[in-house]
Amino acid sequence: MLIAVIGLLFVTPDLSRGQELEFVGSLSFSGVYDVFVQGNYAYCACVSNGFIIVDVSQPQSPSLAGACPTPTPARAVWVDGNYAYVAADDSGLLIVDVTQPGNPTIVGRYSEIHEAMEVCKMGRYAYVAAGDDGLVVVDVASPNSPFFAGRGELLGYGDEVLVGKYAYVASSYDMLEILDITNPSNPMRVGSVSIPGDR
Predict the structure, then answer these.
(1) Burial of 163 (0-12, 13-18, 19+ CB in 10 A)
(2) Is residue 57 part of a domain?
(3) Is 65 part of a structural domain of the chain?
């Protein structure tokens, strides 16, 4: 069964009826900004509850597995292996050991980011959409001691980021900005496109 998690509302696409969604289950708590699913767990960034792990092995009855308070609202999360990378607004980038889902523990922090809005990890680097600070690259090869690796300037306010060969950053002014991250220490903006529509 293919399960999609929307906030903490669980639905299953009905492939026989053109991807129609069917309600499966839910778990209630306030202010879910972001969700990352890996294996049997959904890792949640929450405005008021910090970082939360939900056991979704039984989608009809998801249950709270563990929680870790964050100093400021958790806005986004990316999970890779035994670590979760949490964009936590004024607190910067938090690295959480999730080896034991019932006891997630902050083991590292890069605090020199004033508005950590979104995070995406690839290889040894975490790419953080950092508001007015643009795209901040953090070396997280050693989770206990992350450090600044580079920064790319944006035309707008960095709000969302996805990373592949390039970094794709959704910024203010209704714009998608594209940065070449071949050299993570010096991301270079190579293009942008305005996205029409009302704010």
Answers:
(1) buried
(2) yes
(3) yes
| pTM of the shown model | 0.89
For residue 8, tell me if it sits in a domain.
yes
- Which residue in 108, 118, 103 sits closest to 142, CA to CA? 108
3-state DSSP percent of the chain in helix, strand and coil, to 5? 0, 55, 45
The closest alpha carbon to 163, from 126, 131, 188, belongs to: 126
Domain that holds residue 31: 4-111
pLDDT digits (tens, 9 = 90+) for 127-170: 999 999 999 999 999 999 999 999 999 998 999 999 999 999 99
The CA dihedral of 183, 184, 188, 191, to the nearest 10 degrees, is 100
**What CATH number corresponds to the domain at position 85?**
2.40.128.630
Percentage of the chain with pLDDT > 90? 75
Give Cα 156 to chain centroid, integer Å: 20
Query: Looking at the domain assignment, is residue 93 inside a domain?
Result: yes
The number of folded domains in the chain is 1
Residue 56 has pLDDT above 60, yes or no: yes
The per-residue pLDDT for 1 is 38
First to last CA, the chain: 37
**pLDDT confidence bin for 29, thresholds 50/70/90:** confident
